[in-house]
């Protein structure tokens, strides 16, 4: 019997310092570590599936003063590069960043311990968005199923173990979020929560605007709220990834713009998994002051 496409994938991750990453990224590790930031760089930093494309669209709209036409210059995926992105022979994320004029907006999913040393020397701005672990985990599961460049996630139960052991691409959610949270007062870091963005997008967009040093009128902010809503982004070919080939993302398995809600974990976790997850969460996040909203 033929396997479902998502179970037929042969891709394997490699590791750097115990953190699994896609093999071309690991092979390009040296170039990433040598990357030079500039003082006016602005980084969007996230653990995967935390609302990266959403915040990136918001940042772009603010940067373009709410001009929709300017935001339509390229698909969302190609606007700010991920510095760790690598797929030779195409130019790497670092190559693309190096070719960009200042001031640059860049992205990364890297945990703090894998960031290039120059991140800490130039007083750049970092916008970090965190999403509650359970929804992140569910979203990542469906992404793993449809992504043709990530390994086979196995069953939900198997994937559950992979996730809690930090063996998914870009490593442990717990270490990632804790790492960025712990340094938030030492650098120019605006730490936002996906759940707050869902609850009050206008307020969160205003925080981003202030952090970017922009001052847009209320009408423009309202336009940004509308244009970056889940429904609008799901319908927009520049933000819904419909132009990405099926050999990279097979959206017939699961769409990139899947549900965009808080609390979908309740449709996936068994009672036993939920209790076990809560115990692990308590152990791993014990000493942080982080507080996540699990449902709205
Ligand atoms: N505008 C808007 N509003 C609310 N939610 C949104 C929005 N845009 C993207 N999303 C949801 O974010 C999830 C994808 O996260 P990322 O963009 O971080 O994915 S990635 O790591 O860059 O591949 C994924 O979450 P799930 O739907 O839970 O899978 C997207 O649907």
Write the layout of secondary structure elements.
Blueprint: E1 13-16, E2 19-22, H1 23-27, H2 29-33, E3 42-46, H3 52-63, H4 68-71, H5 93-98, E4 105-108, E5 125-130, H6 133-146, H7 156-164, H8 173-182, E6 188-193, H9 194-199, H10 201-211, H11 218-227, H12 230-235, H13 271-285
Parallel strand pairs: 3-4, 3-5, 5-6
Antiparallel strand pairs: 1-2
Describe this structure in words.
- With 296 residues, the protein is of the alpha/beta class.
- The protein has a single domain, classed as Rossmann fold, CATH 3.40.50.
- Helix content is 38%, strand content 10%.
- The protein has helices spanning 23-27, 29-33, 52-63, 68-71, 93-98, 133-146, 156-164, 173-182, 194-199, 201-211, 218-227, 230-235, 271-285, and strands at residues 13-16, 19-22, 42-46, 105-108, 125-130, 188-193.
- The strands form two sheets. It has a four-stranded parallel sheet, sandwiched between helices. Strands 1-2 form a two-stranded antiparallel sheet.
- Strand 1 and strand 2 form a beta hairpin.
- The relative contact order is 0.17.
- It binds 3'-phosphate-adenosine-5'-phosphate sulfate.
- 3'-phosphate-adenosine-5'-phosphate sulfate (PPS) binds at residues 46, 48-54, 135, 139, 142-143, 228-230, 233, 257-260, 264.
- Pfam families: Sulfotransfer_1.
Keywords for this entry:
13 helices; two-stranded antiparallel ribbon; cytoplasm; alpha/beta; 4-stranded parallel β-sheet; 38% helix; EC 2.8.2.-; 296 residues; Rossmann fold; Sulfotransferase; globular; binds 3'-phosphate-adenosine-5'-phosphate sulfate
């Amino acid at each position: 019997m033929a396997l479902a496409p998502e179970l037929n994938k042969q891709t394997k991750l490699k590791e750097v310092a115990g953190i699994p990453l896609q093999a071309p990224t690991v092979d390009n590790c040296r170039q990433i570590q040598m990357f030079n930031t500039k003082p006016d760089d602005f980084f969007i930093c996230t653990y995967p599936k935390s609302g990266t494309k959403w915040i990136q669209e918001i940042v772009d709209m603010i940067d373009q003063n709410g001009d929709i036409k300017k935001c339509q210059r390229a698909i969302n995926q190609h606007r700010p590069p991920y510095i760790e992105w690598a797929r030779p022979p195409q130019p790497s994320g670092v190559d693309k960043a190096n070719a960009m004029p200042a001031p640059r907006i860049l992205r990364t999913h890297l945990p703090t311990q894998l960031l290039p040393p120059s991140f800490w020397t130039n007083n750049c701005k970092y916008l970090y968005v965190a999403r509650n672990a359970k929804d992140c985990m569910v979203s990542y599961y469906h992404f793993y199923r449809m992504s043709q460049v990530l390994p086979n996630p196995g069953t939900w139960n198997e994937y559950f173990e992979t996730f809690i052991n930090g063996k998914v691409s870009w490593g442990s959610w717990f270490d990632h979020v804790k790492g960025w949270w712990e340094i938030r007062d030492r650098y120019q870091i605006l730490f936002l929560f996906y759940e707050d963005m869902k609850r009050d997008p206008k307020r969160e967009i205003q925080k981003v605007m202030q952090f970017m040093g922009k001052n847009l009128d209320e009408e423009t902010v309202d336009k940004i709220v509308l244009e970056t809503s889940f429904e609008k982004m799901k319908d927009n070919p520049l933000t819904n990834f419909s132009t990405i080939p099926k050999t990279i993302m097979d959206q017939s398995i699961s769409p990139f713009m899947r549900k965009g809600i808080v609390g979908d974990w309740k449709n996936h976790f068994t009672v036993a998994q939920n209790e076990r997850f809560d115990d692990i969460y308590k152990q791993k996040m014990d000493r942080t002051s982080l507080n996540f909203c699990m449902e709205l």
